[in-house]
# Entry
Amino acid sequence: MNKITYEEYLEQHGEMTYSNVGISMLPLLKQGRDLFTVRQKGTERCQKYDVVLYRRPPSSYVLHRIIQVRKDDYVILGDNCINKEYGIRDSDIIGIMVSYVHNGKKRTVNNYGYRLYSWLWVNFSPVRICWQKLKNRLSRLKHEN
# Structure
């Protein structure tokens, strides 16, 4: 049986709803509980705060948030990650999240609460990243002793 790629599915249907795998988009999306819907990316540039589905060579797909739009690429970070990803180009992005289901409630990305969450999460990411790195370091020190 031939597997269809996300790109092929979006080309045929325009959008898809899927469940995330992993913890990189916590607390927004929890594996096994929440869903997200992406629409196929057109020729438009993405915006800061967009959550995008992109291809990470050789064969993985990632759903993370744009935290900076640059002239030729984007800086992207998962909501639960501490390492930024640089150099993501429009050609890597296959879809843009338009809605999600969190705890059984469907919301669009135009929802005020979601927009506020996105703004806070991105603009306080330096503090969040420093805090997480400190927690990781303290945890390693604790386990060494």
User: Anything to note?
Assistant: The CA atoms of residues 55 and 92 lie 5 Å apart.
